[in-house]
Write a structure and sequence with these properties.
- The complex is a heterodimer of chains A (491) and B (396).
- Chain A has 491 residues and is α/β, with parallel strands linked by helices.
- Chain A has 18 helices and 17 strands.
- In chain A, helix 5 (146-159) runs parallel beside helix 6.
- Chain B has 396 residues and is α/β, with parallel strands linked by helices.
- The N and C termini of chain B lie far apart (87 Å).
- The chains are: A alpha/beta (491), B alpha/beta (396).
- Chains A and B meet through helix 7, helix 8, helix 9, helix 10 and helix 11 of A and helix 9, helix 11, helix 12 and helix 13 of B.
Chain lengths: 491, 396
């Protein structure tokens, strides 16, 4: 791990007035927040004064992450890549989720371009209250014709506001596209072959026409890549992204290069390699589509096999420092695991994924409605409430504080237990809202049923394993359960 | 100093600087030596600089040479190598598998000595809960675990098989340990691959079932699954020591807990080289990040020299199939035939990259993909020839 900056190093450069304008109680508290990247320098108004310019500069330098943050797209709709500080997510957190781009060929007819661009813009897969989306369009110059490239770019821009990567090795194509592009694009790419020519054009566009762009430098050799970075910086091109080549025949070679680049930047302090990394799972897609199908024993359709193998490459890259990826497949079954994995890797381990414990009325429950008890792990909570909503379940949902653990883990770990249930019942006063004393437990909580009954005095019924089956379970059983319970009370 | 002396000196040096001098002469001739002391070294760079400012397009922009060395680490520790199965020469049934043995974290530092291994899950009774995309591969053999094991080996090239004796659960069929052991004998007869022996998850019954099966599999170096803090782990460890097996030490996503259990097993007398750790696999989307953290930390601690956690790791990757996104029929989520295996592949691959050495899996397609990926870990960097052009996708 790179040398860690201490809060004291930061504090020394702050105004030390404890003015509280940043919202913290003291400059030291603010320094701690800055160190944890939970606050930014902009939140300190005093630092903006000319007197503190020097300190601010030093602080910026001190706080800049070893992997530079690079953005492209529109001011109000950006893709941010990089900005990482650690090799392993448990050391701090990973900050900018891997940006996922979907390609569009400039050879497609207008309608198809529109359709695919719209798809990228509108695609959403919802999990745990979060909307998971795709991030950018990789417009590829399949025609190698600058005119067609520009035409396709215009169609995309007129119909969507998705950030765009301009993908062509043809200098003319990129040059012309830069004249009409409305956002800050990602440019793919500068290679060993076109280096001089492409760079010269880009330098001129930047100096003369004041064009802004992020540039992908591409080489399968890390040393060469590092040299390319050096040359780019010398010419004032600083928003860089590295493509160390995605080789479908041996994806482990690619992953090795990803790791070597990231480790050089973070653990060895190599500033010239401290840039975001771009991966190309799309290479795997086309490789399989050409007939190299390693799973033909199970999946014969080439496009389906290509989708599976592409997703596998994408997921490997998400695990190994890919800051941006370009994919071709758009089947929802392919996108789901990629998006779910990204969500998991980039959740902040510093805060457990929880919701507020307590009582949540679902639908319009009354005194005869069932009481169901779940955990405050956000995934569990959103899954359960989502299912209940879909199925029209009406109930009182008790959400127990299990420190953000799922039912099975909380049962094993001892948080989903009688004592906690008792406390929850008392605090929420659920007993005053219903005229029964029955709690429905999730199937996975069956082992602690006895403990909960003993501690709370409520009758526990073990329900279904999955919340999607609760609606059916209640329709079939609730009235009977309630009647049986009442009969028992009377006897 | 007279002039002669000055001239003599001039022959030795190129220039002489004379301070505060008064010359009285009618005529003075100074010969400037042929080697001119006067040069204007600044001129060419200034010229170059001017040229640059005037026309930025002119110079050819080249990629400069830079220094860079692959960032290879030295590790004090190593990962233990655990042997599963026993060769015929030593009285076993044949097939031997080794896992672990790494001395580095990444392949570019040192190629992994053994590829990750996948073991096929089978059950001692039909599993009605298995989703259709899995069932369709095993429907014909689910009534007969022996046939099931044979199919895994013959048709899908299984390296190993995991038998889950779920019918022994007192709440299911309460099959006695003796009967489980009989099935174990039949399975050992039917195929020559090493076995993972699993119970039903009942903490009271499992040690008895594992002990009975361990006895009939004496000398076969199976993996007893599992010893954990909720059951009589000493009984499991005793069975392993008595009948020559390995032990799966299972804990919940907590590296300290894994360390604690390993310490207890070792102090009870079990050889550390007979332990495989299972830090729990949370499925993709259901806490996989906790597993990523736990496994990464364990692997790093092992490589740094902590001999209580430098065991190979196992993953119950099959858990992924229980995730609703994997099994549920939902047209909005696309075809389950691809979605389900991909969910298991993603879970397995993530665990593989965290350092897992042995995978318990269910879907033959997922297994094929994870195995194919695992083979790359034992290939040398650059060994597999690459002919694909990195830029073909642009023009495709």
């Amino acid at each position: 791990m790179a040398k860690k900056i201490s809060a004291m190093d930061i504090y020394k450069l702050l105004p030390k007035t404890n003015c509280k304008k940043c919202g913290e109680s003291s400059c030291m508290a603010f320094a701690t927040k800055l160190q944890e990247r939970k606050a930014t320098l902009d939140e300190c108004p005093i630092l903006k004064s000319p007197k503190f310019e020097k300190n601010r500069k030093k602080l910026e330098e001190l706080l800049s992450p070893p992997v530079k943050e690079v953005w492209f797209g529109y001011e109000d709709k950006k893709v941010v890549l990089g900005g990482e500080e650690v090799m392993y997510r448990y050391e701090l957190t990973f900050f900018n989720p891997t940006a996922i781009g979907v390609d569009i060929s400039d050879n497609l007819p207008e309608e198809e371009i529109k359709k695919r661009a719209k798809f990228v813009e509108d695609f959403v897969f919802e999990r745990t209250g979060e909307k998971l989306k795709l991030d950018f369009i990789a417009l590829r110059n399949a025609s190698n014709d600058p005119e067609k490239f520009v035409r396709a770019l215009k169609i995309i821009q007129e119909n969507t506001k998705v950030p765009v990567a301009l993908c062509s090795l043809n200098v003319k194509s990129i040059e012309k596209a830069l004249d009409v592009v409305r956002s800050k694009p990602m440019i793919y790419g500068v290679t060993e072959e076109n280096f001089s020519e492409m760079m010269r054009m880009l330098i001129s566009k930047k100096r003369k026409d004041k064009k802004e762009f992020a540039v992908v430098l591409s080489s399968g050799n890390i040393k060469t890549l590092k040299g390319m970075v050096k040359a780019s910086l010398q010419h004032g091109i600083e928003d860089l992204i590295l493509d160390p080549h995605t080789t479908p025949e041996n994806i482990m070679d690619t992953l090795d290069r990803f790791v070597m680049i990231r480790r050089s930047a973070i653990e060895r302090g190599d500033k010239l390699l401290g840039y975001p990394i771009l991966g190309l799972p799309i290479n795997t897609y086309f490789y399989v589509l050409k007939g190299n199908n390693p799973i033909k024993q199970f999946v014969e359709e080439l496009d389906k096999a290509a989708g599976i193998m592409e997703a596998r490459t994408a997921c490997a890259m998400l695990n190994r420092y890919g800051d941006g990826i370009i994919i071709h497949g758009t089947e929802v079954w392919e996108l789901m695991p990629i998006l779910a994995l990204r969500q998991a890797i980039y959740t902040d381990p510093r805060k457990p994924q929880t919701v507020e414990p307590g009582l949540y009325p679902i639908g319009n429950p009354d005194e005869n409605s069932p009481v169901i008890m779940t955990t405050n792990f956000s995934l569990t909570f959103y899954t359960v409430t989502g299912d209940f909503e879909k199925d029209g379940v009406t109930c009182w949902l008790l959400v127990m504080d299990t420190e953000g653990k799922a039912v099975d883990v909380a049962v094993a770990g001892g948080q989903y237990c009688g004592d906690n249930a008792k406390r929850l019942i008392e605090e929420t006063k659920i007993g005053e809202k219903v005229n029964h004393r029955i709690i429905i437990l999730p199937g996975l909580a069956a082992p602690v049923r006895g403990d909960i009954e003993e501690k709370t005095g409520w009758t526990c019924v073990v329900g279904t394993r999955d919340s999607s089956q609760v609606g059916e379970f209640l329709r079939k059983n609730w009235n009977r359960i309630l009647e049986e319970w009442r009969a028992k009370q009377e006897s | 100093m007279d002039l002669d002396e000055i001239f003599k000196l001039m022959k030795k040096v190129n220039s002489i600087k004379i301070d505060s001098i008064e010359i009285t002469a009618d005529e003075i001739v100074i010969n400037i030596p042929t080697l001119s002391p006067i040069s204007i070294p600044q001129t060419p760079p200034i010229k170059k600089g001017i040229k640059k400012i005037v026309s930025p397009e002119e110079p050819k922009i080249e990629i400069p040479e830079v220094d860079w060395e692959p960032p290879v680490e030295k590790y004090r520790g190593y990962i233990r190598e655990v042997q599963l199965g026993r060769p015929k020469s030593e009285g076993g049934r044949g097939k031997v598998i080794k896992i672990g043995g790494q001395r580095a974290l990444y392949r570019f530092e040192e190629v992994q000595p053994n590829p990750p291994v996948v073991t096929f899950d089978i059950f001692d009774m039909p599993m009605p809960g298995l989703p259709k995309p899995v069932r369709e591969y095993f429907q014909d053999v689910m009534e007969d675990p022996v046939e099931w094991a044979k199919k895994c080996v013959k048709e899908f090239n299984a390296d190993m098989v995991t038998i889950h004796h779920i019918s022994t659960d007192p709440k299911i069929k309460d099959t006695p340990p003796k009967e489980a052991a009989k099935l174990m004998e039949d399975l050992l007869q039917a195929v020559d691959v090493p076995f993972v022996i699993g119970g039903s998850g009942d903490p009271k019954k499992d040690p008895l079932v594992l002990e009975a099966c361990a006895q009939v599999a004496e000398g076969e170096r199976c993996l007893l699954a599992s010893a954990n803090l909720d059951l009589d782990y000493k009984k499991v460890a005793d069975a392993a020591m008595k009948y020559d097996h390995n032990v799966l030490s299972w804990t919940i996503m907590d590296p300290n807990m894994a360390r604690d259990l390993n310490r207890r097993l070792i102090s009870h007398g079990l050889d550390g080289d007979r332990i495989v750790m299972d830090p729990t696999t949370c499925s993709l989307g259901y806490g996989i990040e906790f597993s990523i953290n736990a496994m990464t930390r364990l692997r790093l601690a092992g490589l740094k020299g902590d001999e209580l956690v430098n065991m190979p790791m196992s993953s119950g990757t099959t858990n992924a199939i229980g995730a609703r996104e994997a099994w549920m029929v939902n047209p909005e989520w696309g075809d389950r035939r691809y979605r389900l295996p991909l969910w298991e592949i993603t879970t397995g691959l993530t665990m593989l990259l965290c350092g897992v050495d042995i995978f318990m899996m269910l879907h033959p397609l997922s297994i094929a993909v994870v195995k194919e990926f695992g083979k790359l870990l034992v290939s040398k960097p650059g060994e597999i020839e690459v002919s694909t052009d990195n830029y073909q996708w642009i023009r495709a």
